[in-house]
């Protein structure tokens, strides 16, 4: 078959795909109408996960397996915008890694609301001004984001999803070379993640902390001689030149983000649960806390302690483990924990997100 004939066949398939997409959109609009009549939830996160898992299982190639999710994420996002546009709050301004994570999770058709701080994301969702929030919780190099964990102590919001993105850091500026740079701006975590490069190539330059990597890019766009450590998207949005690519110290630098909302998420094929608790101050207390997990064969994936900020030397523990809170074995473990805790708070159960290298 000649190239011209192959291209004609491809064009016909593209037209067929578009017709099917429009048919899908029509069905979604009808679903939205019925949901409105029956006062049902517009967005069902576990439904999306089921779609992704089903399609990944059905794909026999040669279409790349890793492309199935991003392609259908945009299809679902566009269709949801017809049913009920999702409003998603994130740590802004535009082009932060929180913004990238929000787009990764909800697609480009969602309405993204840039907040000035992590502390502003939570009330925006609590008040109903946003359907969901996206906040960073830990980095593979620098560890936990303390502010996020602290916000959960008093917040009524639940964790209903997670997103893991690669944190690729670049040196951006309006300058044409590093020799023209007079100061470097970025978020404290990004600066820490680029410490070795900064010490080797720019130890003579002042380094200034900002509220986000995107805020650093904004400054670099308006201030002569300024550079920012930020994402490639930030370079594009703020009209900056990438002076040096991939300056992060570790090549597999990942950041995990949490999706927060007002309602719990139903079980899926692979879930994770997060809890907060404070234990009684006595010998062997932490051992007794961990024992119910072992007895019920529950795999812990993370444990982190934070000062409670209510009493001196009192700590709050943040724990992630595999499984959904509705499972009998998880319920048994949580019930056993309550007897040992000053307080215990289930932050939510949600679908686990595979790391990019696992996709």
Describe what is shown at a glance.
By secondary structure, this protein is an alpha/beta fold.
Can you offer a commentary on this structure?
The protein is an alpha/beta fold and 359 residues long. It has four domains: 3-83, Chorismate Mutase Domain, subunit A (Up-down Bundle), CATH 1.20.59; 87-166, D-Maltodextrin-Binding Protein, domain 2, CATH 3.40.190.10; 170-244, D-Maltodextrin-Binding Protein, domain 2, CATH 3.40.190.10; 264-358, 2-Layer Sandwich (Alpha-Beta Plaits), CATH 3.30.70.260. The protein is 42% helix and 26% strand. It has twelve helices and 15 strands. It has helices at 3-38, 45-58, 65-83, 97-106, 118-126, 146-154, 188-193, 195-201, 213-222, 232-238, 285-295, 328-338, and strands spanning 87-91, 111-115, 132-139, 143-144, 158-166, 170-173, 183-186, 207-209, 226-230, 241-244, 254-261, 271-279, 300-307, 315-322, 341-351. Strands 1, 2, 3, 4, 5 and 11 form a six-stranded mixed sheet that branches. A five-stranded mixed sheet has the order 8-7-9-6-10. The protein is globular and about 75 Å long. It starts with a helix and ends in an 8-residue tail after the last strand.
